[in-house]
Every structure is written in C-alpha cells, then in structure tokens.
Amino acid sequence: MAFNASDHSDHEQVTYFSDEKTGLKSIVSIHDTTLGPSLGGTRIVDYDTVDEALQDVLRLSRAMTYKAAAADLELGGGKAVIVGDPEKIKSDELMRAYGQAVDCLGGRYITSVDVNSGIEDMDVISEETDHVVGTSTGLGDPSPVTAHGVFSSIESCVEHSYGTDTLSDVHVAIQGLGKVGHSLAVELTEHGAAVTATDVNDHKMEALAEECNAETVAPDAIYDVDCDVFAPCAFGGAINDETIPRLQCDVVAGAANNILEDEHRHAQALADAGILYAPDYVINAGGLITVYYEYLDRDRQEAFEAADEIGDRLLTMIERAEADGTTVLDAANAYAEERIETKGRTSFARSW
Ligand code: NAD
Q1: Domain coordinates of the chain in residue numbers?
Q2: Which one, 199, 228, 306, 332, has the greatest CB density within 10 A?
Q3: Sheet order of strands, 251-252 included
Q4: Residue whose CA lies nearest to ligand 1 atom number 20
C-alpha cells in the first residue's frame, strides 16, 4: 500500500522513530541519495496530524534533492521532522534519542538546524552521532555565505539583463533585513549598487541606514519601488497574484525559501510580465554549501568561493531557458534532474 502511495513514490526511504521514554516522535525522509548522502535540517513542529507531518517531510526532502543537485554538490536530499510543541517536548534526553535515530541510518541522512532546532540541539545530537552539522564547533552562521550566493546571482542577472558587469547603475529593493538581507544590502552597497530596503523591525532599518548608504521604506511599499532587482529575503509567498502586478523591476532574485506562492504558475506569470526570476532554491544554496563543507571539514573561505559560483551556474540556466523557451525554474529543475540521472546511469553502487 505505502509503496503505491503517490506522495511516497519517488522517496528512497521514509523512517518513523518513536521513543516512549522521551516522547520522541520523528519521521526522517530520505528522498534521493544518487549524488551522495542526504542532508537536510530537522524541524520541530506541533503538527495537527501525523499525516500533515509526513506530507511536510516528504515535500521538504524532495526539495533538498533539487537544491543539492542544482548546487553541484555530491549530496542527496533528506529532511526530518520531530512532532510536538518545541516549548513542551524539547529536552536533552529527547534530542539524544533523536541523535541515536539519526545514527542508526548509518550516514545515509545527515541532519542540521531548521525551524525550532538550533546549534545547541545539534551539539546534543552530536553526542550520539557524527552525522550532524551546524554544531557550535562548525563553520558558524551560514547567512553571510547565503547572502554572497544571492549577490553573485544578482550580478549574473544584471549581466544578462543589461549587458554590464558593474552594479554602479543598479538599484536593488530588499525585503527583510535579517541575517541574509542585511549582509546582502551591505555587499551590494559596497559594490556601488543603490539599495532601498524594508523590514517590519524599525531598528533593523535604522541599523542598515547607519551602516551603509541605503534608503528605507515602509514594509508594504517595497513592492512598488521602481528598481532593477527585487530581492525578497523575509518570508515565503512574497510573489503572488496581488504583488506581481505591482512590481516595477526587471529581476526577482532573493534568498527567501518558496518566494513564489504557487511555484509554476507564478514563475510563468513573472516570465509573461517580462521579469527574470532567479529560482530561490538555486541562489540561496550558500547555507547548504556551508553545512556540507562543514561535513567535509573544509573551511568558511572555501564555502564563500563555492557560493561565488552560484551566479555562473544560474547564467547557464537562464541561457538554457531562453534556448528551450521555458522558465528559468524549469531549466533549473532540468539541470538538477539531469545531474541525478547521469550519475544514476553511470554508478549504481553508492560510492560515498
Ligand atoms: P531572519 O529571520 O534573520 O530575517 C527575516 C527578516 O524579515 C527579519 O528581519 C524580519 O523582521 C523580516 N520580516 C518579516 N516579515 C516582514 C515583512 N512583512 N516585511 C519586511 N520584513 C519582514 O531570516 P534569514 O536567515 O535572514 O533568512 C531570510 C529568508 O531566507 C528566509 O526565508 C530563510 O528561510 C531563507 N534562507 C536563509 C538562509 C540562511 O542561511 N539564513 C539560507 C537559505 C534560505
């Protein structure tokens, strides 16, 4: 029955873990390990039903496969959920039990931080397994690396759209001045771009305006800013039926996950409006690169260098979309699928 369920059908392994003593209820989904061991965070969420948790982990683990493949990493896609209210269920004992669960998968799944799980949790998990990244002894906050990948992608979009490799005449509107948005704004202004930014937190806007030469606007006004590039770096679904008609930009390229409310329909709507969309999962891969490099014992500088290549890869996807008459999202998905297919054809045995 389970093998035929359409939502499971392309996942390699879905494992349920429970531990009565600590109250652990967890699902680990390994979507695809053709390119390498699966890596993805563990989120702790009080789902209404186990089926809701299952749907979430299946969807998220599939997305990790595409993200790793499109980032040219030797890595597969996985994700895990721990079911329950983090405020109530989290304890060192529970995280240790979860660490043992991860360990028994023998390295096919590597875990990391995600919604409601942080560095301190990874430290506890690391007492039970080596297959964890994002610990306090790791490569540190991945956000600046993520921001750098988005920056290099904006450079590529500018080069493609305006035929120039300088940002001095480019105006970028940034939504969200959190860990990624702030770093991005600073890097852009350092390279001569004009930045207009917003955040729901006034202090973050003031801090940015003090640090670099950036304008700020009220949160809802960001969609109407007359700019070249709009960079959503706050939350998912920023691009939707309501906001697309308001956009005054030529490019949408930001760090937020799931920028498009309805992925394929809104990718097409942006293309129809003549707006170049740089797929979020391609350009925000700097975070994944950082934790993967931590796993490989590489250093932070190497992670920045790898993030720098995201823009070049994006350019090949943009060119392919143009040649094939598809959206860049379709071209990115095809790029990822072809990497997996090629590796799958040439080596059945897992080499990692
Ligand atoms: P963050 O929580 O540090 O920052 C988000 C910012 O958005 C906050 O400053 C918040 O006040 C602001 N915000 C919330 N609602 C807003 C609104 N309506 N208008 C304007 N600003 C608003 O998060 P982050 O780590 O900077 O990540 C930003 C996005 O990028 C998230 O979607 C995240 O999932 C994604 N992402 C982050 C990384 C990373 O390395 N941090 C990697 C990949 C993807």
Answers
A1: 11-63+76-125, 143-336
A2: 332
A3: 214-216, 194-198, 171-175, 229-232, 251-252, 276-277
A4: 199
pTM higher than 0.85: yes
- For the Cβ of 237 lying below 6 angstroms from any atom of ligand 1, the answer is no
CA distance 191 to 286: 20
Per residue in 302-343, pLDDT (tens digit) is 999 999 999 999 999 999 999 999 999 999 999 999 999 999
Nearest ligand 1 atom to the CA of 204 is 9
Report the greatest alpha carbon distance in the chain. Answer: 62
Tell me if 11-63+76-125 shares its fold with 143-336.
Answer: yes
Binding site membership of 180 for ligand 1 (Cβ less than 6 Å): yes
Is the minimum distance from the CB of 138 to ligand 1 under 6 angstroms?
A: no
Does 140 sit in the ligand 1 pocket, CB within 6 Å? no
Q: Which of 25, 79, 90, 204 is catalytic?
A: 79
Q: Which of 39, 235, 291, 292 to mutate to test the pocket of ligand 1 (most atoms within 8 A of CB)?
A: 235
Is 143-336 CATH 3.30.750.24?
no
**Which is the CATH superfamily of the domain at 11-63+76-125?**
Leucine Dehydrogenase, chain A, domain 1 (3.40.50.10860)
**Percentage of the chain surpassing pLDDT 90?**
94
